[in-house]
Structure formats: structure tokens, C-alpha cells
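User: Hey, my collaborator sent me this sequence without any context and asked if I could get a structure. I don't really work with proteins. Can you help?
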Amino acid sequence: MGLLRLVALLPMKQRRRRRRRTSADESTASEPKIKGSPWIHSVNSGGAKRKRSHLTLDRLPQDVLQKILALLPMQDAARAACVSRELLQSWRYYPELEFSTKTLDLDEHHTRIQGQLATDVTSRIDCVLQNRAGFWVKRLKFQLQFFLEVQNCYIDRWLDAVNPGIEEFTLELPWDGRMKYNFPCRIFFHENGCSIQSFCLYACAFHPEQRSYAFRSLKRVHFSWVHTTTEELQFFLSNSLALEHLELWHCHYIATLKIPCALQLFNFLRVVRCNMLQMIESDAANLSTFHYEGPIIQFSIVESLQLKDVSISIYPWLNLFDDARAKLPTFAPNLETLFLMSADETGAFYELSNLVPGKFFHLKQLELAIVGPRTEIFFDYEFLSLVPFLNSSPALETFILHVEETAVQHSHLVIDPSKLTKIPRHRHENIKHVTITGFCPTRKLMELIFYILENAVSLKSLTLDNRIRGFEKDLLVRVSQDTGTRDFEEWQNIFGDNEEFLQHTRRAHPNPYWEPYLSHIAITKYILGRVPSYVELKLLGTPPDEIVSSISAWERRLGIVNCPQSVL
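Assistant: No problem. I've predicted the 3D structure and written it out in C-alpha cell form, which is a compact way to encode the shape of the chain:
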């Protein structure tokens, strides 16, 4: 806001000072005057003392003013343009126009505007675009979800503001389940080629015709709730040879996504909840980041030495972790960061000697989220089934495990040392940080923690967080949104009958501190004594000391005795 204060103060105050100057001051021979300089100096009649200097922004060259305004947010730059004609002229060269609730000064309550308010906002947009007609705009964004409905004729008129030099274009329309606007590809036509590099569409249809389009400048594409078919998307990608970044969200008319090998610069792909999608095929040799979230589909990805970041959140898949450990090294040998979320992981434990070796030689961060499993048979998850993942990652430094409703313990944990699963020791040289969220003191989860403490020789910190991150809640919301799709029907057929059973086994207790209290007692009894002195143990979501004392006193009155010392 400092620049705005300067702009607001000048030039009006400067003009008032000039009017008050006396003729003697104007005739002072010793006053230096530098023609064209924005700095004005003055000295007294003795020539010994200099008055304060003033910077008059409106007297700066236009190119300098344009660069100054370009550094301001759009709202501040527009307000500054009201101060003087020079700043107004510079504002017309401001490189960005964004129409959103923020820039149009609408609060969070204006979500579905209609009637007179919608008319007023539409007129404001028309006025701004009319004043900027014929002037260069680098970034043009219409984020119009706050309308109840926008007439197509208004959108067509606003799109006429797309000039040949634009580089970023965004059109986000209100979404009510129907595609009411068919985006015109005419903005990609220009005799010198289209300059658009970033292209974002939300809640509209995109149907490029089989003709020559100038997509060759496109680098980033983001489609959300866009109606486009497999063939149309394939044509679009085949003619976007400079494409580097592609995101598809809720595009339900695509059955197959193919990334052609001709996209030599393509490096980022994210696909989220495209429910009719059945296969992703990528021949892009330089793909470095791949994120997928949605129902189970087929993947066919050419081996890429650049692929270093993979994130897969999927359902229903009973053995995602095993499949990923076996298949990912074949097409992502240099993988460094991996996130996997499985909604129905069974976690079957196999003898380590019988497992097919798969190596992630460069994997440094592994993050796993286990939501479910959703069947009564596999409800007790075998957390030691994750050990092969750790063993196959010799460079692993950070391991994060999110436990979502898989570990349930309603009473105090008692571990019999003779019943602990015996597995071979494996020296993990590089694991430094381990975090477990949704921690619950079950024997099988404790076995995994014991294994890490015994074999991670370079461990620096162990974080046990009793709080649940909410992966399951988000997933259930998404599944409910899929009603009527093939994926929702499959989900219901396999897991729907078990929902009633799960309602009785989910974490629920009249005392909200009961589970954190059980975790506190189990950590005190079984983990504290195993943590080496050089390892920092962080406990999050633990109950306050007074709650622990209160529950302990209550248990003593009932005759329940808990030994705080380790029994192992």
C-alpha cells in the first residue's frame, strides 16, 4: 500500500504548493531546475538549506509507470488509475484483467447472484472491457461461478476482448449439472498464430473441429467439468505440440486418455474423478509428474527416466500397494516421491522370501494412506505387509502412514511377546523421519513401529498422531457424488452390504478423550522404552494431563489397573 499512498498524495498536493509559491520564490536564481526530471529541489534565498524533495509519480515516463502499476494487485492498480490522467493511461496497459468475487468487490455471500445485482455486475464487466478495448492484455480471467446463470450472448461479447497477444486465458462458468455454453475455438485463430500459453475451462463444452487450429503455443491446459469426447481430446492434444502440463477434473465424457509421443515437452499429468475413464496411456518420454485420483482403471505408461513424482488415490483395489511395488519400478525407475491411497487394501502378509523383488533405488519419500478395508473379513489390517515396501527402497528418508479407520481399539492393549510376528531384520540406513497419523494402539500397528525402531539405524524423529486426517470422509463424499455411474454401482455391489457393520466398528466412544488416553497408555507401556536416545519422539493429539489423571482415577475406582512400565 506504500505505492498507493504515494500515488494518492501526488500530484494534487504538489499543485496546491505551486499555487502558493510567491513571485520571489519563482525568481530565485539559485533554484536548480532540471527539465523533464520528476525530482523538484528548492533552496532558500541564502542557498544554504535544501527543502524536502518530492517524487511526482505522474511525471515519470509512461513505460516506468506501466512497470510500477504492473507490480500492484489489480484492485490497487485500478484505484491508482483514478488519481491522474497519466496513471489512467498507464492502467490501460495493465497486463491482467481478472473478473472474480475478489476483484469485483463481492463478499462470500454472493455465491449465486441473479436479478438486478447480476445485471449490475455484468454492466461493470462490459464497462471495463470497453475501456480496455484495443489495448494489450497478457492475462484474461473470467471466474464467474458466483453467477446463477450467465447468458451465452454476454460470454460471446466478452470473448471478443481476447487479443492476439494474450498468453493466459481462463473461463470459469456456473455449474448446475448442464453444459450450457460451447466454447468457441475462434480465439485460437490468428494470421500470425495464437499466443495463448495457459488455457483453463470450467463448466462448458469444448468441441474442436477437425481442421487446422493454432494450438502450437499452448503449454498448460486445465479442464474441469468440461464436456469433450475421447476423439476431440485426442485431436486437441495431437495439435498441441508445445504442451507441458495437463489437468483433467471431472471430465466424464472421456473413455480413454492418450498422451502421444510427439509431445516431447510434456512433463505433468493430473487426472481427477473422470468417472467414465477406463484407461490412461502415455507415450511421453519426459513425463516427470503423474497424479491420478478416481476409480480403478488401466495404466499404460512408457518407461520414463524423468518420472519422479507419482500420486495414486484409487478405489476399489484390494492390493494397490503390492501392485505398485511390483510394477512402478518398471516404468519409473528414478521415482523419488510416491503417494498411494487405497480405499480397500487388504494388507495380506506374505513371507518376505516369496515376494517378487522390486526396487525403488531413488525413492526418498513414501506416503501411504489406508482407507478401510471395508469388509469384515479383512478388517484387521496386517501392517507388516508394508515392510517389503520399505525394504525395496534403500534411499528412503521419509515414511508417512495415514491410518483411516483400519485400526480400532476399544480397551487397553495387552501384548504377548510370544505372539509377535517374527520377520527377518533389515538394516535401513537412510530412514530419518517416520510419521503415523490416525495412530491407534493395536498389536499389528505396534509391530510395524517396533520393526522401524529396531531397523531404522539413522532414525531422527518418530511422530505418532492420534488424529485422523480425513481421507475417508473425503472419499465417501466423492463416492456419493458418483451415484448412477458404473463405479458407484460396483462400489455398492462389493462393499454396500458392509456399511451397516462398519457403523458399529468405527471409532466412537462417549468420552472423546478415551482413544487418545488408550494411545497414551500404550505408548508409555510399549514404545517409550524402545525409542533410542538420539530419536525425537513427537506425540500429537494426546489428551491433557488433567484428563489422563481423571480417567486413570476413574479406572482405579472400577478396579482397572494399568502398569505404566513396559512389559516387553
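In plain terms: The chain has 17 helices and 21 strands. You can pass these C-alpha cells on to your collaborator as they are.
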